[in-house]
């Protein structure tokens, strides 16, 4: 009797596992479709979307070569700007908001409380509310290049980061910092040598949230940057589709494939941190 | 007697400890204010506070450039609320948000429930389900527009030709992207359900279904609330995917000459009012943006109030 129920349980789990495996395959299909079509001649992408690129449909690396200079803007430049903007912004956000978060959590003045309140408030404000005035302000202050746009990202993205840092700093005992102070550390040294190592888990979570946000962001850079000179990957892909009547779908898919490969590699290498970071950002206290 | 503490506390060493702690946390660190808080405050004013205040002011003005703004009161709001395209976008967005909320949460909860049953390969499945979350909205939109057109072209139509295709297409896209995300939150909630409770239910002879509805679901209510609000606000704020998948097409030209973009959601409608061909409507666009902000912030505050109330009850 007991053996029977055990067997039934085992069988049930196997069936579930198979069902989930099938769903998984379906889940990967869209990405597989991108891979297939990036090697297919343009004329066949629309008619034979799900066929393998065999025989006359095979385009080889032609789509990739074409995609590189497609739309009068070299693709490598977009990649470069995307990388620069993402890395600079994330670095700037991590550095500045961790310092500010520590200061706010430890010095509990009225001004700190005001800043903290504004940060929490900014998290519920949608970007459309400020997009017009923000892009004009950024233009006026010459923040419209890839090297200065991180300031805009710091400003608009500070809310969540400060919220997470303040929450974490409040949970660590301040005796450790006091000990450092008694041993003769100034505030700066206390922060960088004592507090930053303790902040590491939050740093990783915030860093991953910011990387994912900035790398995939379309609207903020398209409004702030000078589009003719600087394009990030999402802008590049949008303009390929937007500016031409008939689009070379094969070449577009090749570029899409090139742009998601780094994301997938990044995901597979730091999967654990990414899932943790995203969950931390979602729960928001 | 062992009451030595008062005598001990009068000693110099101990007496100095408190002033030292105060000195560190009240005085010297405050002098470092420009370094620690300065950059964030400056950037925050540039990137949020000033644009926000200016946005509210401009919504009450008539302007083409910011420098020629003229105060006109609530005229922009009246125009925004009377705009049929904006009203259509509102109802379309609300419908989309509610439908996607139900489908995404039911599917995400089911997947999370199955993945916490101790099936072999759960980690691999979790990895796969979460993956689409990292792909940006614009790229997602183009991947799916290719797929939908690949299917629909066999029937001689396209996703850009019918409103219902655009609607359900966007739902499928959002499910693909968001299920993994919500699943992670649900898994965290399910793992926190006390094991002894489940065991007690089993000993008392509850069936799997009874255990699920009477024990598991009440215990993951906090996760369910978070996910419902998240998918609702995500649905309302959706922009990139909407722009890339259909861009508002198909268009419907009404008798009065106004065009309604039938699959255009609120955020895209605001964007088009700002940067569309009719550049005289920027005040109206800013008014729409303020209305949009009040809607989204209202949802956020409702979530806060609701979760607070639950915390008190527990």
Could you please describe the fold and organization of this structure?
The complex is a heterodimer of chains A (285) and B (314). The two termini of chain A are 48 Å apart. Chain A has helices at residues 2-38, 42-47, 62-68, 75-106, 110-122, 127-140, 149-171, 175-182, 187-216, 219-224, 233-243, 249-269, 271-283. In chain A, 78% of the residues lie in helices and 0% in strands. Chain A is flat. Chain B folds into two domains: 5-73, no CATH class; 78-313, MetI-like fold (Orthogonal Bundle). Chain B is built from 16 helices and four strands. In chain B, the strands form two sheets. A two-stranded antiparallel sheet of chain B has the order 1-2. Chain B has a two-stranded antiparallel ribbon with strand order 3-4. In chain B, a hairpin with a 5-residue loop joins strand 3 (251-253) and strand 4 (259-261). In chain B, helix 7 (84-115) packs parallel to helix 10 (163-191) and helix 15 (266-275) runs antiparallel to helix 16. Chain B is globular and about 75 Å long. Residues 1-23 of chain B have low confidence and may be disordered. Chains A and B meet through helix 1, helix 2, helix 4, helix 5 and helix 6 of A and helix 2, helix 3, helix 4, helix 5 and helix 7 of B.
Tally of helical runs of chain B = 16
Cα Rg of chain B? 27 Å
Name of the CATH superfamily of the largest domain in chain B: MetI-like
Q: What is the number of E strands of chain A? A: 0
* Class per helix and strand makeup of chain B: mainly alpha
The strand order across the widest sheet of chain B is: 1-2
Name the CATH homologous superfamily of the largest domain in chain A: MetI-like
Main beta-sheet annotation of chain B: 2 strands, antiparallel
Order of helices and strands of chain A: HHHHHHHHHHHHH
Percent range for β-strand residues of chain B: under 5%
Beta percentage of chain A is under 5%
The arrangement of helices and strands of chain B along the chain is HHHHHEEHHHHHHHHHEEHH
- Which two protein chains have the largest interface (Cβ within 8 Å of the partner's Cβ), and how many residues from each? A-B, 99 and 91 residues
How many distinct beta strands of chain B?
4
Largest sheet of chain A: none
Quickly count the domains of chain A. Answer: 2
CATH architecture of the largest domain in chain B: Orthogonal Bundle
Please estimate the helix content of chain B. Answer: over 70%
Mean pLDDT of chain B: 82
What integer is the average pLDDT of chain A? Answer: 85
């Amino acid at each position: 009797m007991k053996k029977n129920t055990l067997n039934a349980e085992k069988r049930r789990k196997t069936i579930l596992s198979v069902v989930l495996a099938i769903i998984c395959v379906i889940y990967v299909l869209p990405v597989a479709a991108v891979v297939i079509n990036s090697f297919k001649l343009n004329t066949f992408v629309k008619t034979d979307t799900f066929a393998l690129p065999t025989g006359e449909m095979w385009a080889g690396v032609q789509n990739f070569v074409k995609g590189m200079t497609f739309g009068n803007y070299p693709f490598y430049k977009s990649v470069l700007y995307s990388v620069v903007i993402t890395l600079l912004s994330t670095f700037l956000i991590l550095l500045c908001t961790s310092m500010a978060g520590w200061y706010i959590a430890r010095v509990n003045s009225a001004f700190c409380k005001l800043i903290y309140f504004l940060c929490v408030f900014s998290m519920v404000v949608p970007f459309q509310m400020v997009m017009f005035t923000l892009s004009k302000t950024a233009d006026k202050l010459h923040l419209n290049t890839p090297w200065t746009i991180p300031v805009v990202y710091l400003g608009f993205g500070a809310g969540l980061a400060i919220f997470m840092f303040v929450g974490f700093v409040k949970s660590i005992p301040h005796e450790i910092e006091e000990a450092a102070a008694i041993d003769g550390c100034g505030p700066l040294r206390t922060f960088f040598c004592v507090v930053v190592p303790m902040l590491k888990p939050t740093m990783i979570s915030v860093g991953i949230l910011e990387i994912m946000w900035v790398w995939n962001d379309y609207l903020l850079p398209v409004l702030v940057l000078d589009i003719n000179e600087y394009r990030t990957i999402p802008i590049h892909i949008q303009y390929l589709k937007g500016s031409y009547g008939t689009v070379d779908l094969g070449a577009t898919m090749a570029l899409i494939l090139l742009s998601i490969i780094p994301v997938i590699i990044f995901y597979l290498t730091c999967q654990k941190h990414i899932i943790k970071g995203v969950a931390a950002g979602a729960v928001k206290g | 007697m062992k009451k030595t503490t008062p005598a001990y506390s009068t000693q110099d060493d101990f007496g100095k400890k408190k002033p030292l702690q105060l000195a560190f946390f009240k005085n010297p660190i405050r002098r470092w204010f420009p370094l620690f808080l300065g950059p964030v405050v400056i950037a925050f004013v540039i990137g949020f506070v000033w644009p926000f205040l200016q946005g509210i002011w401009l919504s009450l003005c008539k302007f083409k450039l910011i420098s020629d703004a003229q105060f006109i009161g609530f005229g922009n709001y009246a125009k925004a609320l009377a705009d049929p395209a904006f009203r259509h976008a509102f109802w379309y967005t609300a419908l989309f948000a509610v439908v996607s909320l139900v489908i995404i949460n039911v599917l995400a909860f089911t997947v999370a429930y199955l993945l916490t049953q101790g099936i072999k390969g759960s980690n691999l499945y979790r990895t796969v389900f979460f993956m689409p979350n990292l792909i940006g909205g614009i790229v997602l939109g183009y991947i799916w527009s290719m797929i939908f057109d690949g299917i629909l072209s066999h029937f001689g139509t396209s996703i850009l030709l019918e409103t219902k295709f655009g609607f359900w297409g966007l739902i499928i896209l959002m499910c693909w992207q968001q299920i993994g995300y919500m699943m992670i939150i649900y898994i965290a909630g399910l793992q926190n359900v006390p094991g002894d409770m489940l065991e007690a239910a089993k000993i008392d002879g509850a069936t799997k279904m009874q255990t699920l509805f009477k024990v598991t679901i009440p215990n993951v209510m906090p996760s369910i609330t978070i996910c419902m609000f998240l998918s609702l606000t995500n649905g309302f704020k959706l922009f990139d995917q909407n722009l890339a998948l259909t861009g508002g097409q198909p268009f419907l030209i009404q008798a009065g000459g106004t065009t309604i973009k039938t699959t255009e959601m609120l955020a895209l409608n605001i964007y088009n009012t700002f940067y569309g061909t009719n550049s005289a409507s920027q005040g109206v666009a800013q008014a729409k943006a303020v209305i949009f902000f009040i809607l989204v912030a209202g949802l956020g505050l409702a979530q806060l109030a609701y979760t607070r109330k639950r915390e008190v009850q527990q």
